[in-house]
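JOB MANIFEST
job_type = single_chain_structure
chain_count = 1
residues = 129
[input]
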Amino acid sequence: MPNSKNLPPDLAAKLIVRGIHLDLTDALRTATAEKTARLLRHNDHIIRLRVDLELDKTHGVGTQFIAKGHIEIAGPDLIASVQSDEAYKSLDLLVDKLDGLLRRRHGLQKDKRNHPHATDLDVELPKAD
């Protein structure tokens, strides 16, 4: 990344930005880094964050920008995809969607931790004397 000195060190090491059928400008790379920085505040166990920005001229009348996000994290990876008519708008929608996925995942883990389920055992437990 060209402006990796301005990014937090953990984000610069974890973020991968790719352009598919699109030349990534420095402004687009910087905007991607700034917007995805908020995803790391939820969970510092994120291993890698990949953002793919794609220009698709085959769907619809005008051009479509597709933003795909992939968060590698302990457990199942989080994957999201959005499309719109502007690159920055697609990026905003993608970060919002990934943020919601991280919030939902954290809530489910918290519920599981605070409300454990009883387990059924097939054997009879010995009684304490």
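[summary]
The mean pLDDT is 84.
The first strand starts at residue 15 and ends at 20.
exit_status = 0
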